[in-house]
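Thread: Modeling a multi-component assembly for a lab meeting

Hi all, long-time lurker, first post. My supervisor asked me to bring a structural picture of a complex we are working on to next week's group meeting, and I have zero experience with this. I have the sequence lines for every component (227 residues in total). Could someone generate the structure of the whole assembly? Inputs are pasted exactly as I received them:
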Amino acid sequence: EPEVTQTPSHQVTQMGQEVILRCVPISNHLYFYWYRQILGQKVEFLVSFYNNEISEKSEIFDDQFSVERPDGSNFTLKIRSTKLEDSAMYFCASRGLAGPGELFFGEGSRLTVL
Amino acid sequence: AQSVTQPDIHITVSEGASLELRCNYSYGATPYLFWYVQSPGQGLQLLLKYFSGDTLVQGIKGFEAEFKRSQSSFNLRKPSVHWSDAAEYFCAVGASAGNMLTFGGGTRLMVKP
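Re: Modeling a multi-component assembly
Sure thing. I ran the full set together rather than chain by chain. Output:
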């Protein structure tokens, strides 16, 4: 069964460092998303991406965040200068045209900022 | 703005017992509603979804959910819980066809032998 894969599964970084989280969405999907879950809190929407541009973003997704689809398969989330409060589980998701709302999630990348 | 409330943070049931997890949403129009499950160390897996039509929807693993517009609810049910159902369950609402889901806080289900 096709799946969304994310790397790394866990990353520890120092405050102020740049972090790139990588995702390989399901191959025929066209809509891509990043969500995050701070420990003990809700899963929160960050950004959606379609046709090589951001289609929607939340207030969390400020100038420190960026997304990119550098090639035909990867979808990345970059945090330019990490803060302690960026520590969270980051989930990538994708969906195809045929399934409105049916997001397929990866297993997440846990980011710990020290 | 849309919102989702899952009133129960933790629920413990005995294996074989029935289960109902509550979800209440707030949204002005007809919502798109979802239940996801997250097992430890795993991603979010879709259990079922409601877009329109029959208000009782069937999902995977023997789960079902009923959309009640009058109560703004979308409760998840299972007639007989298995130990493997122990996980965290998230209700979510979407305002449009696929973009931006708003999640509830989750309900952690524990299953007693």
